[in-house]
Each structure stands twice: as C-alpha cells, then as structure tokens.
Sequence to fold (125 residues):
Amino acid sequence: MPLPQGLAKFNRVVTNQITGVVAGRLPGFGIVVHTGRKSGRVYRTPVNVFVHDGRYRIALTYGPGSDWVRNVLAAGRFELESVGRTITLTDPLVQHDPGSRWAPVGVRQVLGAVSAPDYLEARRA
Fold:
C-alpha cells in the first residue's frame, strides 16, 4: 500500500515547499509542472525521477491515484524540471513493477519498504 493520503496532504503544504527549492537541480529529483484537470491552475510537484532506457520514470510513492498523476495522464504531456533544465515529456503511462527493478538498488529498497510498486513512465517530446 502506498504512503497514506494524510502524509501526502502534509507534504503538499509543508515538505514540497522546502524540497521544491532544490528538487529541480539535484540528480534523482525533479519537479513535475502540470495543469489541474478542473481548475486549470498550474502546479509544481517535487518527485523522484530516473532515466531508464531513454525513458523517464517517476516513483509513485502515493500511488497512481494522486492528483498530479491524474492531471498528467489526462493532459498526455507535462514539463519536468530536473538537473537545472526543463524538458517536455509526453505519452505518460503508469506501470506496475512489484520488485521496482527499474529503480537503482537503494531506491528499490525504499520503494519496497513503503510498498510503492507503481511508477509513471514518459518519453521526451
């Protein structure tokens, strides 16, 4: 079971404000820039991101039902700020891998510990 939604709400209000300052500049982190499905508002969500076989993979620690994931899937594309640059990603798809074999070893262990087997995969536009 992914992390609880109560923690997600806390992170949205507190943690994301702090990590958002550096997440777009550090390897293994990024900021997903997406537009709300109903509000049309632009959101910035810090994430863990990795490149695997030329595709970008984002750990879904709160599960595939998170608002940002649903926004990205509905739009079919999004911006990712990572390592100091912004790229457009397209064709997002939620994948399930119980062993998180796509992730680096240390990350794989954390994802297993928090029971987060899903990831979002997208390619460069």
Notes: The chain has three helices and six strands. The chain has a mean pLDDT of 86.
